[in-house]
Amino acid sequence: MQNNITIVGAGLAGSLLAVYLAQKGYTVNVYERRGDMRKADTGGGKSINLALSTRGIHALKEVGLYEKIKEIAIPMYGRMIHSIDGKTQLQPYGRDMSEYINSVSRAELNKMLMDLAEEYPGVKMHFNMRCTGMDLSACEIHYHNHETSADQKIKSNVTIATDGATSAIRMEMLKIPRFNFSQVYENYGYKELHIPPRSGGSFQMETNALHIWPRGSFMLIALPNMDGSFTCTLFLAYDSSLGGINSFEHLDSKEKVTEFFKKNFTDALELMPTLLEDFFHNPTGTLMTVKCYPWVMGGKLALLGDACHAIVPFFGQGMNAAFEDCIYLNECIGKHSGNWEKIFSEYQELRKANTDAIADLAQENFIEMRDLVADARFQLKKKIESELYKIYPDTFVPKYTMVTFLRIPYSTALKRGRIQESILNELSAGIKKPEEFDKAKADKLIKENLENLQS
Ligand SMILES: Cc1cc2nc3c(=O)[nH]c(=O)nc-3n(C[C@H](O)[C@H](O)[C@H](O)COP(=O)(O)OP(=O)(O)OC[C@H]3O[C@@H](n4cnc5c(N)ncnc54)[C@H](O)[C@@H]3O)c2cc1C
Asked: Is any ligand 1 atom within 6 A of the Cβ of residue 189?
């Protein structure tokens, strides 16, 4: 039986996976490109906080880590919508206070997961080891050590690549005949900005909410941090040919950026003393969707997390989906003890359709977040949706709830969400107030679609 596993990439998924494998009794060597982030900041201005929700929480609970992680999580009970005139409105995420998402610092979470993984004697982390390629037939992984500048080749009979959206191992898999791969960049990029705490350390806006400034073709969001600050992310078109004056290309001077914020985000601007510094110093991040197949090569190699399914961040599910991969892989390990070919093959079959579905859901949600949350018809439909959820709690479950607060497969959430959307379109047509919707018609439409809505 193969007892030694190699993980490439000690990010969020790789570090959690190391815990899962160690708990199953495996010896795990984790190779990470960066230096040890617990010793020096290696973050580099990339998404400082993330929304952790039910699927991710469940994955942490399965290996007993959630209670620890909870200490660094801030609950967010709803979207706080900031209109252009500065008015705010809280739209709860769930039906009550038990349904919420959590703002977690990416770096703190990663560091904690590394600490927790290293508590197992069988887990060894190797830093500054950038994977540069892999000889797939010889099962030999190539690394460049940044500290010693040495190139190394290390044999590994079972490898799991969690090296993120630009995975070096996946690049090698491109050489496999009939390997399918697509990488689609959005025409939108993102920029991280900062709202500091008040001088006493308290938050300058509502703490327990995800703040959104939806502005049609672009938006600003803000998530709370443990130190009283908020990390804001501006999502904006790259090119002026798409966004006109609302584009990164156009915003090339301090005057233009100040003017843009004055016009679109006045209330946020007042809270951002370092806006110009942040805007011109922080990199503009790219957003992409990666899909590929197969994810595995016999019992020798598998991809997991962003390495095989990077998605846009608009449903807050990339990390949650990567953590969910660990649950499924772990179940397959339990079922097919030691037979890695079966383990990997079943893991991929269980996950592929679902990660494709969350990729589509995430793209659709961008339109919802940047545009529709401020739209009167959208809000009307949301109210009808929550009424129907009360009347048919098992059948008409809001899409957001299915994805964020439940663990039903993403592909089911996508399918049911589309049927529900068409029902909501019918019920909201021609009415102005939610109480005007035709309940008999709702009942008829739901009964007609019962089989699909319950499967
Ligand atoms: C702006 C933004 C906001 C997001 N918000 C959310 C959110 O709210 N909720 C959510 O669930 N998800 C969110 N995500 C997605 C989330 O960040 C990813 O899905 C998650 O980080 C995936 O984890 P991973 O371990 O697969 O990849 P990563 O976290 O990218 O980790 C990959 C690791 O591999 C290492 N590595 C890379 N290349 C090599 C190499 N050649 N050799 C060795 N090591 C290597 C990297 O240094 C890194 O440590 C967001 C993403 C973005 C961009």
From this structure: no
Q: Does the Cβ of 193 fall within 6 Å of ligand 1?
A: no
Q: Which two tokens stand for residue 312?
A: 């846009």
Residues of the chain predicted below pLDDT 70: 1-2, 41-47, 374
Query: How many independent structural domains does the chain possess?
Result: 3
What does pLDDT average to over the chain? 95
Q: Where are the alpha helices (DSSP H) in 146-288?
A: 168-173, 240-243, 254-264, 266-269, 275-281
Distance (Å, whole) CA 334 – CA 153: 30
Query: Within a 13 Å sphere around the CA of 138, how many CA atoms are in the beta-carbon half?
Result: 9
The bridge status of strand 4-8 relative to strand 27-31 is: parallel
Residue 95, in any domain of the structure: no
Closest residue by Cα to residue 228 from 52, 74, 92: 74
Q: Whose CA is nearest to atom 31 of ligand 1?
A: 11
pLDDT score recorded for residue 370: 78
| Alpha helices in 315-375, H assignment, sequence order | 318-335, 340-370
d(CA 148, CA 84): 54
H or E stretch including 181?
strand 180-195
Judgement on whether residues 39 and 109 belong to the same structural domain of the protein: yes
Do both 264 and 219 map to the same domain?
yes
Task: Output the residue whose Cα is nearest ligand 1's atom 1.
Answer: 47
Q: Are residues 332 and 254 in the same domain?
A: no
User: If you search the block for the tokens 């191992």, which residue do you land on?
Assistant: 169
User: Which amino acid is residue 257, in one-letter code?
Assistant: V
Range of the domain at 395: 375-454
pTM: 0.96
Q: Is the CB of 122 under 6 A from ligand 1?
A: no
Among 365, 383, 406, the domain boundary falls at 365
**Per-residue pLDDT, 367:** 82
- Cβ of 14 closer than 6 Å to ligand 1, yes or no, is yes
Distance 289 CA to ligand 1 centre (A): 13
Ligand 1 and 131: CB distance under 6 A: yes
Between CA 278 and CA 193 the distance in angstroms is 6
**Given 330, 365, 400, which residue is the final one in a domain?**
365
**Digit-coded pLDDT (tens) for 246-270:** 999 999 999 999 999 999 999 999 9
The residues with which 140 forms a beta bridge, in sequence order, are 135, 155
